[in-house]
Amino acid sequence: MAPDVVSQARRAAEEVAAARPGSAPSECALSLGIEIIEAPSPPPAQPTLCSEYRANPPRILLYTRSLHGGSLGIDATQGNPSAYEVSKELHVAHELFHHLEMARRFGSLTRAESEAGAHAFARCLVRLALGWDIPLERRTGAD
Length: 143
Ligand SMILES: [Zn+2]
Description:
This protein has helices at 5-19, 25-31, 64-67, 83-102, 111-130; strands at residues 35-39, 51-54, 59-63, 75-76, 132-133. With 143 residues, it is an alpha+beta fold. It has one domain (5-39, 49-133). The chain has a three-stranded mixed beta sheet with strand order 1-3-2. A two-stranded antiparallel sheet has the order 4-5. The chain is globular, with a radius of gyration of 14 Å. The protein starts with a helix and ends in a 10-residue tail after the last strand. Zinc ion (ZN) binds at residues 94, 98, 115, 118, 142-143.
């Protein structure tokens, strides 16, 4: 594991949240020029995939049928978000990390480091931006 990729990811989430107070991850993504595309189903080869990031041009794909697959069991202290909304923002935040990663700001990461960083970034950003506490052990279907 690269030196503290998780700490770096959390710091990056703090920067993103501080730069756009009160903005949901999806609003942060849009303000960074990332298009968010909702499609019903993931590619057949990855039937459980919920989301993915693609560069050139930057976009986040959300697969709505997978995202509807279940509640994340969060403790939402702000508002009363639907399970879909929570899942969507969490996955957008995850993919936002992969967007930042493209600029090499975290160095060259292995696949495992990249996913650990994205998971930490996403949990941190939704907590700071929306007050949602995602259980640590909860895995997403994000790629
Ligand atoms: Zn990922």
